[in-house]
Amino acid sequence: MVTRIIVGILLGAAAVLVIVQGGWLFFVAMSLLCLLGMLELYRVVRPYHPAALAGLISMGLMLYCAWYRTPTGVLGSLALGLGLSFVLVAWGGPRPGVTGRMAVTMLGPLWVAMGFAHLLMMRRLVDGMALVLTVVFGTWAGDTMAYFVGKYFGSTPMAPRLSPKKTWEGYAGGLLGTVIMVVLIGLYTDLSPSESLLVGLTIAVVGPAGDLFESLIKRDVDVKDAGSFLPGHGGVLDRFDALIFSSIAVFYLVAGFLR
Questions:
Q1: What is the pLDDT of residues 101-118, one digit of tens each?
Q2: What's the farthest any 2 CA atoms get from each other in the chain?
Q3: Residue 73 and residue 79: Cα distance in Å, rounded?
Q4: pTM over cut 0.85
Q5: How distant, in Å, are the alpha carbons of 137, 217, 240 from that of 207?
Q6: How many Å apart are CA 234 and CA 202, to the nearest integer?
Q7: How do residues 56-73 score in pLDDT, each as one tens digit?
């Protein structure tokens, strides 16, 4: 527990520094985290034999386009990844499992890289620094509140087959923690109180879905943690699974409906 708290504090401080600084530091940090997350994913799904090179090339181009080009380039990067996965998988001719290999290869860019690409695109929006801080700390506030409320007050399982320790009490605590954090941060951004509330509710609903999404994958391949990069927290995917979903949802909410 002590290790988890210390690492969490250090991670939060580093997040503030990187997000506020922006520029090349933000791009490099997101790219490194994304790369680690992709490698974790391809390691845990190794039984499905992903064509990791195709996914990593797609990831690199996707992040570049998200930061330096346009969202159209992000979609083009996915198309390139699919084409490369086909070439690499089909190189030895038709074999059993080739469809699954291509599918699990593309899971990397579609899930992991897509989340970090949207964080990069969000940082470039008007008031992007405040928006990224809102998503990151709103998501983490929800995770933290859900953990402690579930630990000490949880009794009603939420999804026992996917994540036995998650409870509806913890979910309610996480929802409250997320909304309060986002509304407080919203006082210092261009978001109105109603917009902050909408963003907070979006994170509170979508973030836990990202957590359960990763839990389903880990259950399928029978692993406890995706990695061990962050002591007390597991790997990058274990710490950023909710944020990956939240960043995509909030980007389109803000860019498509609130701006």
A1: 999 999 999 999 999 999
A2: 59
A3: 10
A4: yes
A5: 12, 16, 10
A6: 25
A7: 999 999 999 999 878 889
